[in-house]
Write a sequence for this structure.
């Protein structure tokens, strides 16, 4: 067994102030197994290495000695979360969160988000200053071939779980009369950004109906007829789905000529051509909560 691994296990255990017995109970193995790992007598298999990494909140590369960091480096970052000065350096929060995601440490990522929320970091910043920013960075890494598609999917799921955790803790403002339906264009699967915006509107007191992806146009028309929303928000991330968005807008306007809802469109498909959204026939381009509140005559605080 590589002595680096045995030394790392022992040092990490001591760093976390765990006895061999306590660590063995966390891993569901005998105390002698931990002793054998630390003495270089036994080699943890792949499953056990993953469990060790999760318990110590480090990456596998770190545990195996492929990352040349001091053992207290990550712990130092974690300890600063308790320091209020951290909130003046929100970039640091983002970096720690993104690193947890890339390490595959979902528990540490969710715990971090809950911790900073409970310490006062606003839901809006967590959504758009951490979640959205992290997803964009992950998308860039995938496009560059630096991470695999399974990692992107994993990170998306962790993000959605964290969003649910924060939303469940946020106090909703007094109910307002406005309502919105949110949907992605055609088969567009990038829907987390849209969900973020609708979550924020819900906290503002709006009635929100999130339809997500792969909604047939006629089903969208039926939803509008039933819910009678003030606003329909359509999200488009990939340019080749813009035609699907156009069809949605046309169908809504054709079926509700007398009293059509406002239609807002947004998403990454328009980042290279800010005027392209006008070709869809939508009433306004928007990618954030504030624009929608202003469109409906509500001041965003």
């Amino acid at each position: 067994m590589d002595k680096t691994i045995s030394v790392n296990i022992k040092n990490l255990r001591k760093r976390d102030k765990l006895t061999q017995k306590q660590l063995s109970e966390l891993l569901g193995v005998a105390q002698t197994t931990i002793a054998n790992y630390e003495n270089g007598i036994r080699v943890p298999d792949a499953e056990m290495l993953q469990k060790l990494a999760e318990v110590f909140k480090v990456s596998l590369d770190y545990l195996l000695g492929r990352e040349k960091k001091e053992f207290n480096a990550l712990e130092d970052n974690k300890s600063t979360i308790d320091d209020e000065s951290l909130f003046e350096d929100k970039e640091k929060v983002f970096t720690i969160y993104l690193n947890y995601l890339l390490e595959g440490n979902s528990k540490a990522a969710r715990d971090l988000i809950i911790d900073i929320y409970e310490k006062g970091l606003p839901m809006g910043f967590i959504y758009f200053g951490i979640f959205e920013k992290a997803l964009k960075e992950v998308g860039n890494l995938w496009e560059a071939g630096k991470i695999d598609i399974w990692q992107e999917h994993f990170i998306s799921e962790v993000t959605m779980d964290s969003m649910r955790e924060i939303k469940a803790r946020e106090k909703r403002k007094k109910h307002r009369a406005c309502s919105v339906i949110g949907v992605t264009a055609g088969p567009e699967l990038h829907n987390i950004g849209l969900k973020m915006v609708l979550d924020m509107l819900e906290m503002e007191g709006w009635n929100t109906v999130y339809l997500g992806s792969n909604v047939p146009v006629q089903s969208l028309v039926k939803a509008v007829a039933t819910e009678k929303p003030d606003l329909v928000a359509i999200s488009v991330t990939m340019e080749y789905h813009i035609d699907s968005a156009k069809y949605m807008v046309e169908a809504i306007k054709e079926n509700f000529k007398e009293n059509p809802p406002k239609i807002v469109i947004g998403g990454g498909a328009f980042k290279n051509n800010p005027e392209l959204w006008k070709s869809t026939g939508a009433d306004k381009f928007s990618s954030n909560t504030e624009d929608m509140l202003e469109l409906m005559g509500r001041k965003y605080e």
